[in-house]
Please model this.
Amino acid sequence: MRKFTGFSLVCILLCARIFATLTFFPNHMESGLAYGIGAVVSTILQCILLVPAARLAQLCPEGPCKAAMDKHRTLGTAITVCFMLYFMYEAFVDAGSMAYFTDYFFSVNMHRALTALCCTLAAVYLARLDTAVIGRTAQIAFFGMVGLILMMTLCSAASMDIMRLDLAVERPFEVIGRAVISETERCECLVLFTFLAGRSQSSPQKSARYFLIAKGTLVGGLFILVTAALGAFGMRTKLPVFALASFSKNLITERSDAVFLLVWVFMGIVKLGVLIHCATECLRLLFPSLDKMKSSLFCGVLPAFCALPLLLSYKWERVICSEHSLVSVVGMSVIIPLILLSRPAAASHSKAAA
Amino acid sequence: MKRAKGIYLLILAVLAGVMFSTFGKALSIDRRGLVHAMGIDVQGSDYLVTVQVFKPSGAGAETSVDVSQTNIQTVSGHGKTVSEAVAECRAVSGKELFFGHMQLICLGKDVDMSAPEELFAFALGDKNISPTAQICLAKDKASDIMEASLSSEETSAEALLSMLKVSCEYGRTVECTLRDMLSVAERECTILPVMEVIEKSEDSGEKSEDDKVAPVGSAVIKYGVPHELIPPEKGLETALLCKKAKKGSIVAKLDGKQISCALEDSKVRWNLRTKDGKLHLTCDIELTARPDLEITPEENDPLAKQLSAEISKRCSKALDERLKNGEDIWGIKQMIKHYYPKLLLENKGSTDKLTAQMTSEIRAYVKVG
Model:
């Protein structure tokens, strides 16, 4: 398995995180500024949360699942199954959300099932490639995202007003606290970091630092940008960043939502591909005799297949409007690395040392 | 063997694509009605929606669009909500209405604007409608504006929009977009440009003259109803304070001469502080004035001072009048929210009193170019 650069890892993680923010904001946002502050505070807290994962990645470059398997077979199997189910659940949410929002954003002529199938097959194709190739693809998506944000900022600069940023809420600290929790719940990128950081050519601590700085800046910046440009309208609309892209005018185009959709789809495919890739690796750890192609197909098609009943019966809103679980994010990215760091090395290693 | 397998898979994929695409909702462009403008009126307890749908009039000619014609077709529909009325328009027109090109929404004078989120629910629910769509108020009925025959541009909607944009740019009316309307909280004040059909043409034979439509000022909307009409002659100061006037014109008197000056490059900065225990609002306005008469270098400074004093006086008068009536059309409450959030929360039910008790100072700096 080839290693990839630290920059590729950061791009993969940013694609995974920013995709969620580009799609829609957390429910019941009372103040854009409060949520921007919450995003920054959450990022600062995540600096502490990622310490065990970074340390584990440094000690066990093969990844937490392999490291757990080496220490204790049963523990390793349990941890691998946890990671696999987590990645497959997130792939289920993303495949369904891509089909749902593609149907919503575009006046599409394609059936939702076909949209889900196309996204899944594209992601499965990406997933069966090497991590280094996925990393390079993520870099392109990242630059596209940065270009989009810059374009939206410049195009809506004339109508931005700093006065629209306010903390006029009844209990500001409570609102910021809720924002911190809500922001951390959406950070499946932390779990991806725990899984992939060992494979980075650069030091995991360094990658974590750069990733968190970029994430805090981009996520906080997006909340502030939408609030400053759209004001209360941004909080009322279902899809604030899409509305901002519709609002962004320049000399060539009257609206930039087509660029938004291009970047959004690209990032979605990268995120889905990474999730399927990670789930495939977990599956192949559990069943080493499985072919890479077949495992990728299984890990990709099963979540999409599970999403179809909800998509076709128009009940997908229940999934996207439901709160994500903070326990799963903290459990996978903090508790599991702490368990693995605290356990002694496997018996075979100690015998070899003797 | 592998190659054959690949070819079979490729054929299967193409067939699957063709098969699944037949389940879709394919719609050719000629079955779509491109809505350029929309009028909303109240008729009894229902809404009457009149849409202008693009219909090229140049059939048989070299170009599909005949610029001497209006190139639109109006379609009307009734409904308990605007969305229901739009659905009736779709049924009447026989086309799938597409709102991605809609640039203007005109509201009749009887439309209740106290709950913008409810009124514009159709726009919030439709991702195609741009937040930059202009909103205006009709002097009487929005359907009159929609049915007006205007051929000065390619379509009637473009002619209306062009009139509105120029009028707003020169400060004769104040611009309002969908974003601005939906940023206003319930029962807060806002300001909209007003359009009126001044003269309806008589249809005489083959060629009919254009109707005359013009912007007639800006309406202050308070508690969802038009409260006061600011005429175009007094629109500049209001538009400047709203940071929406880019240009304007003003007449000054210097040594017995009447000098008309074109104003441009406007920059407006608001600030809010406390002074002697009260909220003190300051506004700095910077403008460049270009006089139409040749003036000597010695006359520059006196002219600049006079223009600055005149603009300060007019803007102060406009601001004091609005604040006295509790009409916050400049987002002063948002400024209080930004600078003093606790103060606003403490005075939640009586923010009008807060703004009425405010002191204000307008400082204009005019450069004569």
Observations:
- The radius of gyration of chain A is 20 Å.
- Residues 6-339 of chain A form a domain with the Amino acid/polyamine transporter I fold (CATH 1.20.1740.10).
- Residues 346-354 of chain A have pLDDT under 50 and may be disordered.
